[in-house]
Amino acid sequence: MNYKLSQNIKITFDSDDLAAISIYYDRNHPTDRILTMTDLSQEADQILNTLAFQPFDRCQTLQRNFTNIPARPGLYAVRHRSIGLLYIGKSKSLRGRFSGGHKAFLWSWLDKYNDEDVRLSLYPLSPWEDPALLLELEARILRATEPPYNVLIPSEI
């Protein structure tokens, strides 16, 4: 199975439970990274543990501007103090994702949740990490948690 995520990134899944991620910085010299599905699952588990179990008081409060959130790629969770995960997503820029608003904030308001009970848990990634992994990691985390505000949860690959 092959997935072309952009002009420079391609993921290939073979029958031996391996994912080969090819990143072409130069068309003639691809850089390949071989990962097993177990590697992806372990990385997804680590991210999920960070997003779901970070102490609530250490999560980001909702604000009008999100200048304290890094403008880096990453995964994030909208969390409720007692209910838990409401929404999980990914973004090329965490700050940019929230500075324009987010549907999970509207839905939590419609559900009459107190704004002090809704916060953001973030898992920033360095800009040079494999961007192709974001899609697979988000899908695995969504399938494991099924947050109520995620309308579409990707099916198993």
Can you walk me through this structure?
Mean pLDDT is 77; it is low at 1-11 and 15-27. This protein has helices spanning 37-53, 94-99, 103-110, 132-145, and strands at 2-4, 9-13, 18-26, 29-36, 60-61, 74-80, 84-91, 118-124. It is α+β, with helices and mostly antiparallel strands. The strands form two sheets. The chain has a four-stranded antiparallel sheet. Strands 5-8-6-7 form a four-stranded antiparallel sheet, sandwiched between helices. The N and C termini lie close together (9 Å). Helix 1 (37-53) packs across helix 4. The chain has a domain at 40-145: GIY-YIG endonuclease (3-Layer(aba) Sandwich). The protein is globular.
Key traits:
single chain, disordered N terminus, 4 helices, four-stranded antiparallel β-sheet, alpha+beta, 157 residues, GIY-YIG endonuclease, globular
Tally of extended strands?
Answer: 8
Q: End-to-end span in angstroms? A: 9 Å
Radius of gyration: 17 Å
The helical percent reads 25-40%
Cross-sheet strand order for the largest sheet = 1-2-3-4
Secondary-structure element string: EEEEHEEEHHEH
The CATH architecture of the domain at 40-145: 3-Layer(aba) Sandwich
